[in-house]
Specification:
With 121 residues, the protein is of the alpha+beta class. The protein folds into two domains: 76 residues, OB fold (Dihydrolipoamide Acetyltransferase, E2P); 43 residues, no CATH class. 28% of the residues lie in helices and 36% in strands. The strands form two sheets. Strands 1, 2, 3, 6 and 7 form a five-stranded antiparallel β-sheet that branches. Strands 4-5 form a two-stranded antiparallel sheet. α1 packs antiparallel against α2. The protein is elongated. It starts with a strand and ends with a strand.
Length: 121
């Protein structure tokens, strides 16, 4: 998540803001209010648990030991089921707004991306 210094604040209040893109995953319209459910717009690749184990073991070993251990480790892990692991937990935000505010945003639809600036004030 990129952090950018918020230049709108005076120097005595040193804050960082995070600018994120969020994809709309759900819209609920009750007539007067609109509720948007947003999920952080990040693409992740699932990684197998086997691959994570092999990479972590490889980091800890010197090259000679690695040559001896890695074939054995790969043979042991071959018998194990492959479990895909999501390596990033996405942020989800739900917000409600008056319908006229939603209209002023251009009536974004499910799947479209919104930019939110988050900063502690």
């Amino acid at each position: 998540m990129p952090y950018v210094k918020d230049k709108s604040q005076d120097k005595s209040n040193k804050s960082l803001s995070a600018t994120n893109e969020f994809k709309i995953s759900q819209i609920v319209d009750n007539g007067q209010m609109i509720q948007l459910t947003l999920i952080e717009n990040v693409s992740t690749e699932p990684i197998s648990q086997k691959q994570m184990i092999i990479e972590n073991v490889a980091k800890k070993l010197d090259s000679e030991t690695k040559e001896q251990i890695m074939p054995l480790l790969e043979a042991i892990l071959q018998a194990q089921p492959t479990i895909k692991v999501k390596s990033y937990q996405q942020t989800q935000i739900t917000m409600a707004m008056p319908k006229n505010r939603y209209d002023h945003l251009g009536r974004p639809q499910v799947g479209e991306v919104l930019k939110l600036d988050l900063a502690k004030i």
